Amino acid sequence: QVQLVESGGGLVQPGGSLRLSCAASGSIFSFNAMTWYRQAPGQQRELVAGITRTGSTSYDDSVKGRFTISRDNAKNTVYLQMNSLKPAATAVYYCRAEGALDDYWGQGTQVTVSS
Q1: Helix, strand, coil percentages, rounded to 5, for the chain
Q2: Which residues are within 8 A (CB) of 24 and not within 5 positions of it... i.e. 6 or more apart?
Q3: Average confidence (pLDDT) over 29-49
Q4: 55-105 pLDDT tens trace
Q5: 45-48, long-range: CB < 8 A, 24+ apart
Q6: What whole-number distance in Å separates Cα of residue 34 and Cα of residue 48?
Q7: What percentage of the chain has pLDDT greater than the value 90?
Q8: Statement: residue 1 has pLDDT above 90
Q9: Residues 72-78: contacts with CB within 8 Å, 24+ apart?
Q10: Cα separation, 45 vs 42, whole angstroms
Q11: Which residue, among 26, 31, 32, 29, has the nearest Cα to 5 in the 3D structure?
Q12: In a designed cystine with 38, which of 42, 43, 81, 91 is the match (CB 3.0 to 4.6 A)?
């Protein structure tokens, strides 16, 4: 069993930046992928970015060029650097650890982009 704890959310003005962290209680190295999702009020949860065990990254088209996902296996932590934030990015952001046989989610962290 692995617990995931997200942090780094908050209120930011449009155009600002935030860095989210997802700290795992155990090793993340064995997971096939670590991913970030977000869910806005009244909307379905959507995939934002992912990083594989080998370091390959992928992004939703809406965040390409502005968001960067990275991982630090030594710290068992995954990050999401979010730049040039737009109001549409307002959502609860969730971290997910995807394994071959197991799958874990964090509790989420709120990001609000507003002036």
Answers
A1: 5, 50, 45
A2: 2, 3, 4, 76, 77, 78, 97
A3: 96
A4: 999 999 999 999 999 999 999 999 999 999 999 999 999 999 999 889 999
A5: 45/94, 48/80, 48/93
A6: 11
A7: 92
A8: no
A9: 73/27, 73/28, 73/29, 75/23, 76/23, 76/24, 76/25, 76/26, 76/27, 76/28, 77/21, 77/22, 77/23, 77/24, 77/28, 78/21, 78/22, 78/24, 78/28, 78/34, 78/36, 78/51
A10: 10
A11: 26
A12: 91
How many residues in total does the chain contain? 115
- Distance between CA atoms of residues 6 and 2, nearest Å: 13
Q: CA 31 → CA 42, 54, 105, distances in Å?
A: 30, 10, 13
